[in-house]
Amino acid sequence: MSDRTPVPEFDASSLIADCVAKASVGSGSQLVLAYSGGVDSEVLAQGLASFARHNPQYRYLLVHVHHGLSSNADAWVRHCQSQAAKYQLPIEIRQVKVKMGPRLSIEAQARSARYEAITSLMAPGDALLTAHHLDDQLETVLLALKRGLGPKGLSAMGEVQAFDNNKQLLRPLLSISREQIESLATSQAIAHIEDESNQDTKYDRNFLRLEIIPKLKARWSSIAVTASRSAALCAQQQAVIDEEVSKRLPSYIVPVSQGNGTALELSDLREQGVNWQLLLLRGYIEYLGFAPLSQVQLEQVLYQLLDARVDAKVELRLGDTLVRRFRGRAYLSSVEAEHAERINAPILEWDLTPLLSPDCDGAGGVVQIESSEAELRLSVSEIKSLQVRMLSQLDRVRLPNADERVTVRFAIAGSTRCSPHNRQKGRELKKLWQESGIPPWEREKVPFIFYNNVLVCAVGYWIEKAFVCRDASAGLNFKIVTRNSSFPFTHHQP
């Protein structure tokens, strides 16, 4: 007779039902399973199939991501497609390219690519199911300790979490051990794949899973449960901190002058104790959607922002996050976004002929119109275009004469004399920038429209008085348009 303790059984379908109820997933929403075909996701997929038979009010989708990192990847795709047919659940296969490099973590890059591929198939209100379990939680806590993270990091994973534009993340198996999952798969003969990379201990999670956690469990059999309890306590404490930060933070955030986005007011931050300074700075970084900084990095940023000389140029690059200081305010932007925003050329010629009315007389006279849906766009960077529409309302400049060449120019001389329509007197450009509080790195991104060599307008800021349409005649309205991108933009709330 065996003295082995029986492994507790569980019902994945019931666990899914509990999570869906806790998350209040609305009828008609889609339940999306991150489906690798490994034993964990296979057990969850079977449970989802059972749940789906009794809950037709939801839509269902399995998503398998082909990373192209294994010679077996194509076979894994065929396995997942075959299993999905048995479960009678729809499946999407997404092939991604994982960024590789000497300073890049393959694990992190694969996870990021997988996340983007899956969430691209989701809409607000949908829920993503992942097969994370109790032992994964222990691994996450140990990795957080290794990285020196605080309560937020140690709170690890939650069973139900909101994420990414009103979506829900559900982890129905978070209270279930790896042993329970493998036992159920064996007893029910659930077919699954084995990823050979899971045996490679050069990856931190595999090292913990294969070499460290078995020894910990041999000494303390309930360590996964107690670590999960500690994580829950950290999450509870972090929730209180987050609630308080969310109440305080808005009073430190100010809109940027003449544009979209925000900055952090440093004079107010300086009045707080150092612990609250760190919490508020961390909260602002999270609010903008940037990757969290380590405690050492936060302290370095805080020192530079608050203690560097008033006339010192503060510009710190930390991963993809760029932190600058200007006139007592902190500005955060993405290095990748700034690279994509670099202008194509300092001077761009623009042919507006396709937009102009055939009734133009060639000397500025035009037919009266209410509005026009027609528009032209000129690409000025990888992610930004300059849009022009012909309107008889809103702020607009007069149409160019037949002999006037239209150009778009950037970074024009600060000594350029300007006569903005919204000022009584003209001034040099550099004085206008200083007056408006526009940071230096933003000034070079502003497009200026010229007719021949005469300044017409600074897009988004002013129109030169001599070129303003003051009656109901048609004119041109210029606007910068940003195309969709996967990274946060300068000053923009995500």
Automatic annotation (TrEMBL):
Q: Which GO terms describe its biological process?
A: tRNA modification
Cell compartment(s), UniProt:
Cytoplasm
Instruction: Show the Gene3D superfamilies listed in the entry.
Output: 1.20.59.20, HUPs
Q: Write out the residues that bind ATP.
A: S36, G37, G38, V39, D40, S41
One GO cellular component this record assigns the protein to is: cytoplasm
Q: What class of enzyme is it?
A: ligase
Q: Does the keyword Transcription apply?
A: no
Sorted alphabetically, which Pfam families does this protein's record hold?
ATP_bind_3 (PF01171), TilS (PF09179), TilS_C (PF11734)
Q: Which HAMAP family match?
A: tRNA_Ile_lys_synt
Q: Which family does it belong to?
A: Belongs to the tRNA(Ile)-lysidine synthase family.
Q: NCBIfam families this protein is in?
A: lysidine_TilS_C, lysidine_TilS_N
Domain notes from UniProt: The N-terminal region contains the highly conserved SGGXDS motif, predicted to be a P-loop motif involved in ATP binding.
Q: What is this protein called?
A: tRNA(Ile)-lysidine synthase
Origin organism of this chain? Shewanella sediminis (strain HAW-EB3)
Q: What is the lineage of its organism?
A: Bacteria, Pseudomonadati, Pseudomonadota, Gammaproteobacteria, Alteromonadales
Q: Which gene encodes it?
A: tilS
